[in-house]
Amino acid sequence: MTPDPEPSDFDATHGHGEDAAIQALQRRVTRGIDHLRTDAERLDAEDLAVEFVAWLLRAVRLAAVGDPQGFDQWPTLASELGIDVASSIRHAALDGLETLDDARGERLAEAVIDAEDASCLRLIEPRRTDLLANEAFDRMLLLWVDAAEGVLTDEDAVSVLDSHRSSWPIPAEARLSVIETPLGALEHRLGGVSASPAIRLAPVFEHAESRALFDGGRPTDGMIRRFAARRGRGETPSGRELEVEGSLDPHWQITVWIRGTASALVRGVRIGTRAMEIHPDFRPSMDAAADDDGPDGGSDGPARPWSVSLAGLPLEVRTRLVCGDVAISTVDGGRFLI
Q1: Is there a single domain that holds both residue 21 and residue 117?
Q2: pLDDT higher for 212 or 215?
Q3: What is the pTM of this model?
Q4: CA 301 to CA 286: how far, in whole Å?
């Protein structure tokens, strides 16, 4: 997220308590409306959308702690500025996922706090305006939140998150556990962080990052074949079946095919912190014409293809991501790794 023109709220209010934090953010949200109208004259559409989402996430945090006045103005403001809000939040979520993957210290804490604000948006928006709620939008917010919940926080990040937690009484249903109880790498190793550990459907990908080989910047045929060996079956907590297989093409497009009675229950798929999305060509109506063989169909309906391209990332980032786990989560609480 692009930094606000003023100091961040947790910097400005560090040690001042809840009332000071809320009052400071109330002033910023109110002034932010005027800033956005002024900025609309000098910024291109993309930069204006980034600023709008930054404002919206702070406004919804205020709404979550009992002051919805600023947040309730977002539909009118977005219309006035010509902002596609759902699309802008989607791009912010993707940027947030990348930051969570790479950042350390204060920048990591800021990314986690953005994700908690997204959690507030998921809670508050249907109650106040109910203009954004749909399956794809909710899934993107969940991916953002889930990625933040999985980060390892260093000492500097924990310090910022501790200050944020003490300043902001976020409702329990929106509060992130990584903020409620920040855990670093040591705590993860010693105590674990999940009451419901992920189920591994396939062995750890054998092509270790240190041995990754490429052909002119592209994955080799051998690496593609080994990635295709990622496959497995599992069962969700509600007893639904899941069958998963992955593929990597020469242009760094990763696709994960999910079929079975649980395929429609999948709420998110990611490799590292890169979110995957349902392939735009997928149509649930294909079910009626599906055969029993191959990745395109079966007795449980068509395989749902989730995909993401790593082509635009630096080679070392592509290497790290493609050699890591693919994580799948379902709405009934299932978590799976391949």
Answers
A1: yes
A2: 215
A3: 0.61
A4: 8
Q: How many CB atoms lie within 10 A of CB 103?
A: 18
- 86-118: pLDDT as tens digits: 999 999 998 998 898 778 899 999 999 999 999
Compute the chain's Rg from CA coordinates. 21
Q: Could you tell me the two tokens for 116?
A: 């908690």
Examine the domain organization and report whether 172 and 321 are in the same domain: no
- Position 227: which residue type? F
Asked which of 126, 161, 189 is the last residue of a domain, the reply is 189
Token pair recorded at residue 284? 């649930």
Nearest to 320 by CA among 120, 126, 102: 102
> In the listed set 144, 165, 189, which residue is the last one of a domain according to the structure?
189
H-helix or E-strand containing 105?
helix 105-128
Burial 144-169 (b: 16+ CB within 10 A, else e): bbbbbbbbbbbeebbbbbebbbbbbe
Same domain, 113 and 159: yes
- What's the number of domains the chain is made of? 2
